[in-house]
Design brief:
The strands form two sheets. The protein has an eight-stranded mixed sheet with strand order 6-13-7-12-11-10-9-8, sandwiched between helices. Strands 1-2-3-4-5 form a five-stranded mixed sheet, sandwiched between helices. The protein has 273 residues and is α+β, with helices and mostly antiparallel strands. The chain contains eight helices and 13 strands. It has helices spanning 11-18, 26-35, 83-92, 102-106, 145-153, 164-177, 221-235, 248-257, and strands spanning 2-5, 42-48, 63-68, 71-75, 97-98, 100-101, 115-125, 138-139, 182-187, 190-198, 204-212, 240-245, 260-270.
């Protein structure tokens, strides 16, 4: 196996390879489209030579590994890809945030003992089927980011290893770059529910950060925000949207909106020692 950093000359072949499973590669598509393969913001390494798929047609890569800032996503279309080169590179880079397709991460976990992994369901939406009132839903500007970040900091699911200033800056960066946006709904003058997009690109986007302030739960507010958000993204021309979840109750709500489970997505963060 040989390792090679890909550049713009490899774009067409790489995108065609990733297009076989566009949902699992949504983050990769977004980063490449926004920054390009020659940017210092990201790296995409390919492990070569090619393998052969079921039809006898060779894949161009055994696997690939994306780095965007300090986040890493390994991917392969082959179930028996060679794990050694991917693990060697992740350990060489001292990677701490590693996420990806469940079946890919499951083959790498044993070599990444310093990382804590969480399995989630990955779902795809082609059209919104739920009809709810979306009046009053607002889109965030930079002026709203601090209040949104404070809402997240008050919620148990979001406060693990929470870095308030860093998270606020990441949200501002996403908004400034166009890779992410926020939709929210107010109650009693405060932001009560919020949902965000991430890795936005010309054909898709990831729905993330769906949250409701504890004092306003069980009123369907986050559902209304997500429906408004998804409608707008699809109107803009997105072909599909994705999200991942691990809470079965949340999953039932997403299914009623129109999301359908397609597989698993595994997220990895540094273990707390």
């Amino acid at each position: 196996m040989t390792l090679r950093r890909l550049g713009e000359a490899d774009r067409d072949i790489l995108l065609h390879y990733l297009a076989g499973e566009p949902e699992y590669n949504l983050f990769v598509f977004g980063d490449i489209e926004r920054f390009g393969l020659d940017s210092d913001q990201l790296d995409v390494w390919a492990i070569e030579p090619s393998r052969t798929n079921g039809s006898g047609v060779p894949y161009p890569y055994d696997s690939i590994l994306l780095r965007f800032k300090d986040y890493y996503i390994p991917y392969s279309r082959s179930e028996d890809f060679s794990t050694g080169p991917v693990l060697d590179l992740l350990l060489q880079k001292q990677a701490k945030n590693v996420s990806g397709k469940g079946s890919v991460i499951s083959r790498l976990k044993s070599g990444l003992e310093h990382i804590e992994f969480t399995d989630t369901f990955l779902s795809r939406l082609n059209r919104v089927v739920m009809d709810v009132d979306t009046d009053g839903i607002e889109k965030a500007t930079l002026d709203n980011i601090e209040e949104i970040t404070r809402l997240y900091s008050d919620i148990d699911e979001f406060d693990t290893r929470y870095q308030f200033q860093q998270s606020m800056q990441r949200s501002r960066d996403a908004l400034n770059s166009g890779m992410g946006r926020f939709w929210f709904l107010r109650r009693d003058g405060h932001i009560a529910a919020v949902s965000a997009s991430s890795a936005e690109n010309s054909v898709s986007a990831m729905i993330v950060g769906v949250a409701t302030s504890p004092q306003f739960r069980n009123q369907g507010l986050a559902t209304r925000v997500v429906v408004a958000q998804c409608r707008e993204l699809l109107r803009e021309g997105k072909k599909f949207l994705c999200l991942f979840y691990y809470n079965p109750e949340a999953g039932r709500i997403y299914h009623r909106i129109g999301f359908e489970d397609i597989g698993t997505w595994t997220m990895g963060k540094p273990k707390i020692l």
